[in-house]
Specification:
Collagenase (Catalytic Domain), globular, alpha/beta
Amino acid sequence: MLFMNTTRVAVGLASLLVLAIAPIAHADHAWAPYHWARTANPFALQLGDSVTSTWDSYLRTAAADWSVSSVMDVSVVASGKNAKTCKPTMGRGEVCNAKYGFNGWMGIAQIWISGEHISQGIVKLNDTYFNLKAYNTPAWRNIVMCQEVGHLFGLDHQDEDMTNANLGTCMDYTNDPSTNQHPNQHDYDMLETIYAHLDTSTTLKQATAGKAQEISGDAGDWGREIERSRDGRASLFEREFEGGQKVFTHVFWADPAEDERFSRSR
């Protein structure tokens, strides 16, 4: 993802050919060339903890899992953000949970981009769904936390067909998260590719100042749809602001049947 433009085009065409022949998993699962700018590997990335005690262990597990990567060390730091608004902090990720309502999504990850560099990111976990019996399990909490945090680093999904066999990674869509709760080696390999080159400056917290455009958790605020999963649901959105800044939103949707059951019970 971090090669010359001609190479990116070739890789993109090859990826399309692979998907056309055998639509099982992404050989290259990155959010285009987007990455945190840094001057050395491994780099330290903080996740602000604005989750309740119910989620604390899952956040710590995700940080430890992703820190297995050779290119990054992920730490959890106290934050105290208002979880409902979950405003971002320049130079790090923020992770929040709250009852965001029956809006269709269990989790979202948003990253702010200037050029090719991530400047901040947030994860929101929707307790409206995780309080339901169907999703109130360690397996579902692990996969959504792990996947949404993984998006903050520039990773995309390995597979977006929920009916395919599990790939053994949280970056895989599934109807049964039992074996998809943590990263796998392909995720770590992809991170090494994304962060293979070094930058001359950093967008990490210790050297970053300023404020980026805020964006809400409402779908109407996410901008244009740019990608759909194999079940036909919009999974990635892009919103552009003045000055070249962009915000990407990755969505982890709940089963529509849960919304239907809720509507019938009202």
